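Notebook entry, structure prediction.
Reason for the run: the old model in the group folder had no record of what sequence produced it. Starting over properly, with the input documented here first.
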Amino acid sequence: MGNILVVGSLNMDFVVEVNKMPQPGETVLGKKFTLIPGGKGANQAYAMGKLGANVNMIGAVGEDDYGIKLLKNLEEVKIGTTGIKKLKGENTGCAFINVDETGENSIVVIGGANQKITEEIIDNNIELIDKATIVVLQLEIPINIVTYVAKIAKEKGKYVILDPAPARNDLPDELLKNVDIIKPNETEIQILTGNTVNTDEELYIAAKKLLEKGIKNVIITLGGSGSMLVTKNGYKKFAALDVKVVDTTAAGDSFTGALTKALIDKKEIEQAIEFAHIVSSIVCTKKGAQTSIPNMEEVEDFMKKNS
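New structure, fully documented this time:
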């Protein structure tokens, strides 16, 4: 089995359960408050590790209790954390998450140490890129660092996956040309391309704009409507699994993690997408981010029950 490298964010999630999302100017009473390890990079790495992949991570935390807890949590699923820098005088990244009764969430992220990752930190951990087969990136760290890592990874012949969240409309062409898979959701691909995406045909047209930038594969996640794979040969839809949604937090990150795990196991991309749907569906039936991510035994049990 090959090695995966995740370069990205680590956050402590402050999760508040509410009956309904507050509107502008409105105060609502929350039902419960929980501290849960998160961050898109850490969530994805954790998912891969819990599913049994060999994973290292490059990132940054503060020299505070939250940073210590985040590192310990990754190490519990055998994630290599030597590439995670503890930055003096910086706060560990935090995310403030409201989750309503339907499982939908709204998130505000404070980047903290995540925004202080430098090219020097990457260069000091270049051996982690060297020994990786797949490099996974997101957008909760500085865009110049994401672009820098993708360029180095592609020059070294690595397979590059980009989860473009939080989405922005100014991703550099230099980054996109070095990406093998980009995995936006409906909202994110609309932001990335400026296109409306109300139909399958519109999704396909938007995805083709990304292919023209040099990206090899576009995987658009569509929530309860499944996902769409777009390549130069056309598109294919994948159905979502029918589960009772409790909390969608980390569903997208677990999809990316499971997709990467399947690809490192030499699965074809369509098989990898199907596996990712299974894992992210399980995540939606539980509360929290990393706390909701299953191991392979849980995945196999789910598959047996739903076969």
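Summary: The domain at 3-305 is CATH 3.40.1190.20 (UDP-N-acetylmuramoyl-L-alanine:D-glutamate ligase).
The old model has been moved to the deprecated folder.
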